[in-house]
Fold this protein.
Amino acid sequence: IGAYWMAIFYLLVLLLPLAQLTVRLFRLIRLPHDRLQVGSGVVTLLAVILLMAYGTHQAYSPVIRSYDIHVAKEVPSFPSLKIAMASDTHFGLLSGKDHALRLVKEINALKPDMVLLPGDILDDDIRPYLDQNIGDILARLEAPLGVYASLGNHDRHDGPVEELIQVLERSNIRVLYDEAIVVGDHLTVVGRRDRSDRDRVPLASLLEGTDATMPVILLDHQPRDLDVAERLGVDLIVSGHTHRGQVFPANLITNMVYENDWGYLRKGTMHSIVTSGYGFWGPPIRIGTRSEIVEIRVTFGQP
């Protein structure tokens, strides 16, 4: 109720110009004062109800967005790679068990080689995640090369972060917490701590000692410092965090703040893909955006 009340208040503020316009139109046709008040109120109420219904549908009905990219580096063990990516699941009271089941079903239907979860898996509190056994659901994700995650600014709980990582890794999710690993002998996957973490290690330090001939995939929750990643030889960076504003017109703000706030951007040889997120923060509504899972089809080698 509290979450929806926040959304209703926001929409009423957003609809204030519409309400004023309705009053002016009704005055032009010389409606009596009492009918004018009722009429403008009914129009505003209907608009709020319709927007709430539409926004809830957009939040709980994810779509699949697909991107095709090419990386010039050779990968002898596989010429192509299919990645399923979902960020900002915000699993908790409102993005709960059913939303998790939907995520697993949709991702497994894609038959990915690898699954990436770049942050904000939880919604600030680990308790609902545990109470609803969401970890058991996520353990059903199927990907021969594994499931990898980085942590975001909402992946918090009252205990040490190591405890949170252990909970996630019981679901067969490898959490990369400022860590670089080699997958399938010829692919480097790097996961960073969130930008809000004061102990975050510089990307240059994480990539030190890695094989520059291997493709590098980076999970970084917030899509910042893309120029740094491109300069250091990252081939693909996947991010979330922005929600693409989640509710219009906040998308206009995220578009100004981030070089890539949603979708695909190429910088030199590096590919940046930012998702609007699978879950939501606060009220379970999306207006101007939609819940999504991202499919990335990568080919390797010289074109």
Q: What stands out?
A: The longest strand covers residues 63-71. The chain has ten helices and twelve strands. The mean pLDDT is 92.
